[in-house]
Design goal:
The structure is a single chain. The radius of gyration is 31 Å and the shape is rod-shaped. It has 306 residues and is α+β, with helices and mostly antiparallel strands. 69% of the residues lie in helices and 8% in strands. It contains eleven helices and four strands. The protein starts with a helix and ends with a helix. It is found in: Cell membrane. Residues 56-161 form the FtsX extracellular domain. The chain crosses the membrane at residues 21-41, 180-201, 222-255, 281-300. Keywords: Cell cycle, Cell division, Cell membrane, Membrane, Transmembrane, Transmembrane helix.
């Protein structure tokens, strides 16, 4: 097979169906940009989980005098020194679950509240004796929150046991939902792209049916006849894949590093690095090359009957 002939036929096909080729490039670019974006979103969520779950604490809040008057969990009164000693002793026995225990006094809790919510109108009316003492527990495995909850919920002197992981789970659930929505749009765009590729190849084959008929008569092999059409689709797809890679690089640069500059404005979020983006680009380019080529191959088998 002469490479010059194949390349010339690719150029002819792309020029003849310029509008449909442009539509293929755009649809492939958008669908693969969404594909790459959904992969990066998954990486971002997993990285945030690893970062924040490692910082999650379980808090055992102890009853104070105010709680004894208003909270049914503290009906037996404020926590006593003996009860605190018993709670701490039980935590020390749970070495297989508990990594670290930190005690926070009422004065420390008041200080932390003032640091975080000092501008709130409520802050001026609070006093240290209204704050709750607590034990902040760092777990070896954040998934083992229920072990602590079942051991200390309802105990005398304990107002509540709270797990910060529950708050994070709601956030990650929202992010995962958005990611699945992006994947659904991506799937629809891929279907549109495949339909455009098939139609473009069929139109190209129909417009050159005289040439392909002559080639069959002189004994050209099926693959020799199909190759220009398959490579047309592959080239158009590869251009679309390159555009998709450009979208991802530009988005990473302007949204996180510059422009919106989220890496500095949202410094509590541990954003994925450039390595995560760059490792996705070969997959996107390979998909952009193989997907149109295979779609064209199967469409031509039926259409040309070679």
């Amino acid at each position: 097979m002469r490479a010059q002939f194949v390349l010339s036929e690719i150029g002819v096909g792309l020029r003849r169906n310029l509008t449909m080729t442009f539509a293929v490039i755009v649809s492939v670019a958008l669908s693969l940009a969404l594909f790459g974006g959904s992969l990066l979103m998954s990486d971002q969520v997993n990285q945030m989980k690893g970062y924040w779950y490692d910082k999650v604490n379980v808090s055992i809040f102890l009853c104070n005098k105010s709680d004894a008057e208003s909270d049914p969990n503290c009906a037996k009164g404020a926590v006593t020194a003996e009860q605190k000693k018993q709670i701490l002793g039980d935590l020390d026995k749970m070495k297989s679950v508990v990594q670290k225990v930190t005690y926070e006094s009422q004065d420390e809790a008041y200080k932390h509240y003032k640091e975080q919510f000092g501008d709130s109108p409520l802050a001026s009316s609070l006093t240290p004796d209204q704050m709750q003492e607590s034990y902040r527990i760092k777990l070896k495995n954040p998934e083992q929150y229920q072990v602590i909850a079942s051991a200390f919920n309802g105990r005398d002197g304990v107002q509540s046991v709270q797990d910060q992981k529950g708050i994070l789970d709601n956030l990650f659930g929202l992010l995962n939902g958005m990611n699945w929505a992006a994947r659904a749009v991506m799937a629809m765009m891929l279907v549109v792209a495949l339909m455009l590729i098939v139609n473009t190849v069929r139109v190209s084959a129909f417009s050159r049916r005289r040439e392909t008929g002559i080639m069959r008569l002189v004994g050209a092999s099926g693959f020799y006849i199909q190759a220009p059409f398959i490579m047309e689709a592959a080239v158009a797809g590869l251009i679309g894949g390159t555009v998709a890679c450009g979208f991802l690089l530009i988005a990473r640069y302007f949204i996180i590093d510059h422009g919106l500059d989220l890496s500095h404005k949202l410094n509590l979020i541990n954003f994925i690095g450039w390595d995560a983006v760059l490792t996705k680009l070969p997959l996107i380019l390979a998909t952009s090359l193989l997907m149109p080529a295979l779609a064209a191959f199967f469409a031509l088998r039926k259409y040309l009957k070679v």
